[in-house]
Specification:
Blueprint (H helix, E strand, L loop, with lengths): L1 H20 L14 H61 L6 H6 L5
Length: about 110
């Protein structure tokens, strides 16, 4: 039991000392600090931020392309929807026996008229 207490005390003491040696300055200002470690950490952070910004900008550009493709698809679908509704109206008129305007069909295929 005594050995366990001694070992736990040694472990806690070593963790406490390790924490002092690996602390980072909480407010590292490279312009005011004379510490090279602070300046190198600042430069590394700036580099990582630049990499992250570039990655985000690439993602945004790919998303913009996808949005443009979706928008053009929506416009095509609305055109097709209008054409389909006109065709459906013609089919309903044919079903009820009403006359329909065949001028478009006669212009494309005059031999059928």
């Amino acid at each position: 039991m005594k050995n366990i207490i001694i070992l736990s005390n040694i472990l806690l003491l070593s963790l406490f000392i390790y924490n002092f040696y690996n602390t980072i300055e909480p407010y590292c200002n490279p312009e005011l600090s004379q510490n090279d470690k602070c300046k190198s950490q600042y430069e590394q952070t700036i580099y990582k931020n630049d990499e992250n910004i570039n990655r985000v900008m690439e993602k945004i550009s790919t998303l913009k392309k996808k949005i443009m493709n979706i928008g053009s698809g929506i416009l095509k679908n609305t055109k097709h929807t209008g054409k389909n509704s006109k065709t459906l109206d013609k089919m309903r008129k044919l079903d009820t026996g009403e006359e329909i305007d065949n001028s478009d069909a006669c212009e494309k295929h005059p031999e059928a008229c």
